[in-house]
Amino acid sequence: MKIVNVSKLENCIDGDFVCKYNLDSAWTKDSIHALKELGRLTYYANFPKPMFQISCNDGAYIKGVQGMSECRVVYDRSKTDEAKARFEKLFEAVLSLF
User: Fold this and answer.
1) Using one digit for the tens of pLDDT, what is the confidence trace for 54-93?
2) How confident is the model at residue 11 (pLDDT cuts 50, 70, 90)?
3) Which residues on neighbouring strands pair with residue 64, listed in sequence order?
4) Which of 18, 66, 94, 98 could form a disulfide with 50 if both were Cys (CB 3.0 to 4.6 A apart)?
5) How far apart are CA 2 and CA 13, in angstroms?
6) What is the number of domains present in the chain?
7) Quick check: 74 and 60 in contact, CB under 8 A?
8) Domain with 37 in it
9) Nearest-CA neighbor of 58 among 97, 88, 24, 29?
10) pTM to 2 decimal places
11) Measured between alpha carbons, how far is 59 from 40 in angstroms, rounded to an integer?
12) Which of 96, 95, 89, 85 lies closest to 35 in space, CA to CA?
């Protein structure tokens, strides 16, 4: 999996900002579970469209739906662009396994 596009989204929560990541393929159960490397995974397999949430070790928060080729990442505004770049590098490393 590779990131093909990143766009900032409007957010109503002060102090945070949200990015939408479009990927070149859809999330699978295996690719979702591989994200455990980034933090604490909550996976809702019994939902009509299984979804996942990850509370990352660096404070970022990932949300997505199995079968979709996108996810949203919520970053704390206090994080620097350098911290965001480090997170994206780790995120891409995990995605590259699929």
Assistant:
1) 998 888 899 999 999 999 998 877 766 777 788 888 889 9
2) low
3) 52, 71
4) 66
5) 28
6) 1
7) yes
8) 3-95
9) 88
10) 0.85
11) 11
12) 95
